[in-house]
Automatic annotation (TrEMBL):
Residues 247-279, 564-590, 647-674 are annotated as: Disordered. The lineage of its organism: Bacteria, Bacillati, Actinomycetota, Actinomycetes, Kitasatosporales. Residues 249-268 have a biased composition (Basic and acidic residues). Pfam families: HAMP, HATPase_c, HisKA. The keyword Phosphoprotein applies. It comes from Streptomyces rhizosphaericola. Keywords: Kinase, Membrane, Phosphoprotein, Signal, Transferase, Transmembrane, Transmembrane helix, Two-component regulatory system. Residues 1-27 form the signal peptide. Residues 581-590 have a biased composition (Gly residues). Residues 412-671 form the Histidine kinase domain. This is histidine kinase. Its main location: membrane.
Length: 674
């Protein structure tokens, strides 16, 4: 049988499919759960790391060195519960929050580089405390020479507050916000610039650069112009917002306005401005690059040098992550393959153990089909297959017993039919040859043999009908005493010939039974015929009947009893397994008291105890030579048992060797006789 069609193949396929689905589902669930947990943990850690990075970035932007950063590092470590370390780019330690005497070594990869002139835009974007980054990635808190002194701050603060008050009076919500350099600016709620322009709240004085800013801006312009000059380009003028081009409306240095009273501003002449200059896209990119380079060069001496930032746990671990690298993918695939291999291997072992006894059963069934007598299989364990094997062995043994019984029955039937046929043939051949005269004695002998042959055939027909379940009975109320008298009268002549006394001892209180009178007379007649045949001259055969309640003492007093059959059962075993021999198994034990018992007792030689279980088997005879003088066909008692069962009763036998035998028929009782 192909593996794909066998039970083992299907078991392997199902197991592999289930294992693959289980592995895939488990892996998917584990990846989803782990990835979600890691993303959540990474999000929290990244937010904390961004806050740490932003704080240290602000320190570097506002201090020219890292001296004194230890306090800031330890405070951040206490707030985040992490280990924070700063080193130079050559990995010389600047600050470390580790509390151990010998801190764990730092990981080879830094978490970030703290450089206010080159901000990490990812961490800066996640910071909740940062001020944003410029297009050139310089931290806005790195102001350097643009930091205003106190006098200029105060002056600009007053201008900003007056401007905010003017806007508030005009119906605009405005507030003063101070930047990292100390310059204040007016921030309005909402966006209506055209309405602001229609008011008299001018901010020209507030927007103009101060002396400090002008000085720093001139230096920045000089650095940027030098860069542009090296590229063969013209210089530019930057405002305090680092814009250039037509957006710049800065007055010349000699025309810089000075604060004047508010009531004189309307009469003041407008400042002169330079005509706008046209810039191409390439010019803008070159200017932006030079401005960024100039700013870095200008701020380099005002900020701390770049430092490596290490963030991890106290034990030295870094931020947890989930790296589905080729190596990890190979590990997952290897584990999945190992699980599948183990599943397939286990399935092979389990399937082989499951299929092996099935193969043995198949082989035994084939041997049974081929006619081999021994077709049993070994039984091990107590599982379903073991019980199946045990049931198969029982079936095989039962089949062997039936086959043996069939063979014995064929042999016995052939023997029983051969004898009368041989006698008839012999007498006819003798008459044909003139050796015997066809006188009345001759005819009588042939008739006797024919009757014997007909009797055997009738008995076989009755047994076949009983075995097929088509033995029909027609029950009607029967008076047991009258039936026993009829049977005794029918066998009286034979008893007189054998010099055996035949008597009836029926109890007058015996209830009627619902039985087929013809079949019941046949059964009792077989018992009487068998008893007369095995009772020596001068002996007695007694027919008696009584209710089941009255049989207890009598039946219990006998020994060597056997009862065969039961309602709806068939005892065809030649070994007599259905019978039980021994004291106390008589008619009165274990039956309802309303039953009627019919007994035929004789004073013959009795039956040996070892033969008692087989007396109701077909063709069984105590005299093994099967002589016609000492026994009948061997079917009479088997028919008695079948007839008793057809009436819902049982047939039994009790015997004591050398004293006699008692054969009984127990039938369900009916209503008492009126």
């Amino acid at each position: 049988m192909p593996l794909r069609r066998s039970l083992l193949g299907r078991l392997l396929g199902v197991s592999a499919l289930v294992a693959a689905c289980s592995v895939a589902a488990t892996a998917w669930l584990a990846v989803q759960t782990t990835s979600g947990a890691i993303r959540q943990e990474q999000g929290r850690n990244l937010a904390a790391d961004a806050r740490i990075y932003d704080t240290l970035l602000g320190y570097a932007a506002q201090n020219p060195t890292w001296n004194g950063v230890d306090a800031t590092v330890r405070k951040l470590a206490e707030e985040s519960g992490r280990r924070i370390a700063l080193t130079t780019q050559s990995r010389q330690l600047l600050a470390d929050s580790a509390t151990a005497e010998v801190p764990p070594p730092l990981p080879p990869q830094a978490s970030a580089v703290v450089d206010p002139l080159s901000v990490d835009t990812v961490l800066a974007a996640r910071s909740t405390e940062g001020q944003g980054t410029a297009a050139d990635r310089i931290d806005p808190r790195a102001v350097g020479p643009f930091l205003l002194p106190a006098a200029e701050r105060t002056e600009l603060r007053q201008l900003a507050e007056r401007h905010a008050i003017c806007l508030n009076r005009s119906g605009f919500a405005a507030d003063v916000v101070v930047g990292p350099s100390g310059r204040p600016r007016v921030q309005m709620v909402g966006n209506a610039p055209e309405r602001v322009l229609s008011t008299k709240c001018e901010s020209f004085d507030l927007d103009a650069p101060t002396r400090t800013e002008r000085k720093a801006l001139d230096a920045l312009n000089g650095l940027a112009d030098a860069c542009l000059e090296r590229q063969g380009r013209g210089g530019v003028r930057l405002d305090q917002n680092l814009f250039w081009g037509d957006q710049v409306t800065e007055p010349r240095q000699e025309e810089r306005p000075v604060p004047v009273p508010e009531d004189a501003r309307e009469a003041r002449a407008a400042p002169a401005v330079e005509p706008p200059r046209e810039f191409t896209g390439e010019d803008d990119r070159a200017i932006a690059s030079c401005v960024g380079t100039a700013r870095s060069e200008q701020l380099g001496s005002y900020v701390a040098s770049p430092a490596l930032l290490f963030i991890g746990d106290e034990g030295g671990a870094t931020v947890p992550g989930f790296d589905l690298s080729p190596a990890n993918t190979a590990k997952i695939a290897g584990v999945a393959a190992l699980v599948l291999a183990l599943t397939v291997g286990t399935s092979v072992l389990a399937g082989a153990r499951l299929v092996r006894p099935l193969h043995a059963l198949t082989g035994a069934a084939q041997r049974m089909r081929d006619g081999e007598e021994s077709a049993s299989v070994p039984v091990s364990g107590d599982d379903e297959i073991a019980r199946l094997a045990a049931a198969f062995n029982d079936m095989s043994a039962h089949r062997a017993r039936l086959e043996e019984q069939r063979r014995a029955m064929v042999s016995d039937v052939a023997h029983e039919l051969r004898t009368p046929l041989s006698n008839i043939r012999g007498w006819l051949e003798a008459a044909q040859d003139g050796l015997a005269d066809p006188d009345p004695a001759f005819v009588s002998s042939l008739l006797e043999e024919a009757v014997q042959l007909q009797h055997i055939i009738d008995d076989l027909q009755d047994l076949a009908a009983a075995d097929a379940g088509v033995l029909r009975v027609h029950p009607e109320p029967v008076r047991v005493g009258e039936l026993l008298a009829q049977v005794a009268a029918a066998h009286q002549a034979r008893a007189d010939t054998a010099e055996v006394t035949l008597r009836v001892a029926a109890d007058g209180q015996v209830p009627e039974v619902a039985a087929d009178p013809v079949r019941l007379r046949q059964a009792v007649g077989n018992l009487v015929s068998n008893a007369v045949r095995h009772t020596p001259a001068g002996g007695t055969v007694t027919l008696r009947a009584y209710g089941g309640g009255a049989a207890g003492g009598c039946a219990a007093s006998r020994s060597g009893a056997v009862f065969e059959g039961g309602s709806g059962s068939d005892s065809g075993s030649p070994t007599g397994d259905e019978g039980e021999s021994g004291s106390g198994a008589g008619a009165g034990s274990g039956f309802p008291s309303g039953d009627v018992v019919i007994e035929v007792a004789d004073t013959g030689t009795g039956i040996p105890a070892e033969d008692l279980p087989y007396v109701f088997d077909r063709f069984w005879r105590a005299e093994k030579s099967r002589s016609r003088r000492t026994g009948g066909s061997g079917l009479g008692l088997a028919i008695v048992r079948k007839l008793a069962e057809a009436h819902g009763g049982t047939a039994g036998a009790e015997s004591t060797e050398g004293e006699g035998s008692v054969f009984s028929i127990r039938l369900p009782g009916s209503a008492p006789t009126p």
